[in-house]
Amino acid sequence: MLCLLAMALIWSLNANQSLFLWFNQLGLSTGGNATHDRFWASATLLGDTLAAFTLLAFFLRKRPDIVWMLFLTALFTTLWVHGLKNGVDSLRPLATLGADNVHVIGASLNKYSFPSGHTATAFTLAAVICLRGVHPVLAVSALFLATLAGISRVVVGAHWPIDILAGALGGWLAALIGLRLYARWPLPTRPAVHLTLTLVLAVCALSLLLIHDSGYPLARPLQLILASISLLLSLIHI
After folding, report:
1. Of 104, 127, 138, 215, whose CB count within 10 A is highest?
2. How far apart are the C-alpha atoms of 130 and 18, rounded to whole Å?
3. How far is 96 from 108, CA to CA, in rounded Å?
4. Tens digits of residue pLDDT in 112-142
5. Sign of torsion, CA 134 136 137 141?
6. Whole-angstrom Cα distance, residue 236 to residue 229?
7. What one-character-per-residue DSSP string does the chain give?
8. What confidence tier does 28 reach under pLDDT thresholds 50, 70, 90?
């Protein structure tokens, strides 16, 4: 509801472009220095789909139910993001405002702006964590990191604010669907299922470590750290 209200307010005030420019100027206000750009590129990595699956390795030992529920939820996030992207086909800020007016960190993107896939992924993971009844500190931390990932998509010049809100909305709705599915198909107790999930996460971590191009070279150090730790955690549980 908060996302819908915020989208309606931005639309009614015709504030989408002005809000984008304000957030995007966070990059220009510091002169676009490398440390600043690295921070926001790293924040954007948190919404990368492969990075999100890799992060699940941190829950394998004590909360495998979170891993299982995200697997149940992922398809609906994908349908939300790609269904709307292909249906709306809106131009990104760089294509609308031009390179002189947009501070771009990482990949230069022009098409398929609505909604933000990175934000949808980040909020799907955060919502799954929250809806599975974790400690409040973990829930707040997950929401904070998802919000940071969403804001980063404006700062790096990839999305409009309405794209971010639509992504967050879709991620949360997908998690609600996943919660219903989990009620019908809870985590199987068979060792083979746990082993399969662990192997999938290990492959995700290995791909993030050796192959994956996130489009944000400045986030490479964080990418390697996350992948290495997650791969180690996955191998421990095999």
Report:
1. 127
2. 32
3. 13
4. 999 999 999 999 999 999 999 899 999 999 9
5. positive
6. 11
7. -HHHHHHHHHHHTT-HHHHHHHHHHHHHTTTT-HHHHHHHHHHHHTT-HHHHHHHGGGGTTT-HHHHHHHHHHHHHHHHHHHHHHHHH-PPPHHHHH-TTT----SS---S--SS-HHHHHHHHHHHHHHHTT--HHHHHHHHHHHHHHHHHHHHTTS--HHHHHHHHHHHHHHHHHHHHHHHHSPPP--HHHHHHHHHHHHHHHHHHHHT---S-GGGHHHHHHHHHHHHHHHHHT-
8. low
Q: Distance between CA 15 and CA 78 in Å, rounded?
A: 28
Rounded-to-integer distance, Cα 140 and Cα 152, Å: 18
- Of the candidates 58, 73, 181, 48, the one whose C-alpha atom is nearest the C-alpha of residue 124 is 73
